[in-house]
Amino acid sequence: MGRKLFCEISPLTYEISLKKEIAKRHLKNIFSQDVIAKTYSSTELPNIVKSHSSILKRKLLGVDMILQDNKVTNILLACKKINTLVIRPGETFSYWSTVGPTDKKHGYKEGLVISKNGLTSGYGGGLCQMANMIHWLVLNSPLEVTELHHHSDALFPDERRRVPFGTGTSVCYNNVDYRFKNTTDQNVQLMVWVEGDELCGELRSERPFPCRYKLSEEDHHCRKEGDTYYRISKVLRTVIDRETGVEIRREVVLNNHSKVMYDYAYIPKDEIRE
Question: What are phi and psi of 101, to 5 degrees?
Fold first, then answer.
């Protein structure tokens, strides 16, 4: 067995390591050339590039529902920070520069948090869902993703999944950020809100972009490697000329090879390949 990392020795050394990484990120941001979007407008831009919604609460085996309730509180707080934000040409959206700290002092509650050992709890838990929403909207646009940290594991079954597996992103205040740059010639705007039991979002622009985008998951299956199952697939993005409907290109967004972290009994038998 190898030596433990400093952050793995105890909860105290973990907190010290985390604060060090946060300080490093603050320093990096100071010297960054990125122009971070900070302008809000109550006037909605007229064109909807992409809209989406996702279920806020799932019944997960062994997970206290209070963590799901708290996630909704955390999502609502983040909505207030993000909704109506305008990203001008040349500007960069930074998730954490926009949302800010997610500690108890800022009203956040303990929600579900993804760690390398699976699921745990922590203040601000559940905000990955907001980042996932924004990334999905951006994938359906010509905007350029400049920082992305993929989830490495398959943590939940596919119940009520609406988007291809693997198109989410990890975020952790503030050193694990999600960023995209507006490389177009027009303003874009993020709209996010909670409606009933769903998180809703829209990416808006001043006018339609020349292309539309279609994302799909292909060759999805689960395979046992040793004693562990992995979820395997490819996520493709098709770029289509809006005026003619002609396919311009297809590109691989992601090659999934994700460890299945939930009960193997939830893997459909017809999805298992030897």
Answer: -60, 145
